[in-house]
Amino acid sequence: MSRIGRLAIVVPDTVNIIDNVSSVTVTGKFGTLDLDIPPFIEFVKKEGRININLKEPCPKNANALRGLYRTLLFNLVIGVSEQFETTLLLKGVGYRAIIQENEIILSLGFSHPVKLEIPKTIKAEVIQNTTIILKSCDKELLGLFAAKVRSWREPEPYKGKGILYKNEIIQRKAGKSGK
Fold it and tell me: Are residues 160 and 89 in the same domain?
């Protein structure tokens, strides 16, 4: 029995959920998101709460999928009501970022600036040239874009330079030692 799947989802008054046969649409003040659901999972609404139940016949891994779809729906509800936020820090001499129109331009020590197009559902903000704040109602898309930005200069273990997530701790190595 899935422990996560049994938990009810509390839905705020500002969020509207429309349950179709094969998908769920969640609408809130920050946007609209869709989720495709398998035919053996059903959502039951009662007094501002949603429970996830299984219909028969269901496959062997139905309990695991019940927990997964409960978490996915919960992320949609939180996203459209509050938004998700990711902060990236640029550490290194000369590392900086600026936003022009719908692009982030990164100076990361290469011979050329790195230009990344910002997806339409993500809002980006740069503070003091070294802190990038990304906000979106779609947690999956936000994480993918943050990972794409970070992949240009992942933190290295000797000096700790690179693009780090906020509150990320880099295990430092000692490096070479003299005679």
Answer: yes
For position 95, what pLDDT does the model report? 95
Tokens read off for 142: 């936000």
Residue with tokens 């994480």: 143
Residue 47's alpha-carbon distances to 1, 13, 76, in angstroms, are 24, 11, 19
Supply the CATH number for residue 153's domain: 3.90.930.12
User: Residues 6 or more apart from 64 whose CB is under 8 A from it?
Assistant: 2
Residue 179 covered by a domain: no
pTM: 0.88
pLDDT surpassing 60 at residue 1: no
In whole angstroms, give the CA distance from residue 154 to residue 149. 9
* Distance (Å, whole) CA 39 – CA 74: 19
pLDDT > 70: percent of the chain: 98
Task: Give the Cα separation of 152 and 110 in Å (integer).
Answer: 10
Domain of residue 153 covers: 84-165
Separation CA 95–CA 99 (nearest Å)? 14
Band of residue 42 on the pLDDT scale cut at 50, 70, 90? confident
Residue 173 forms part of a structural domain = no
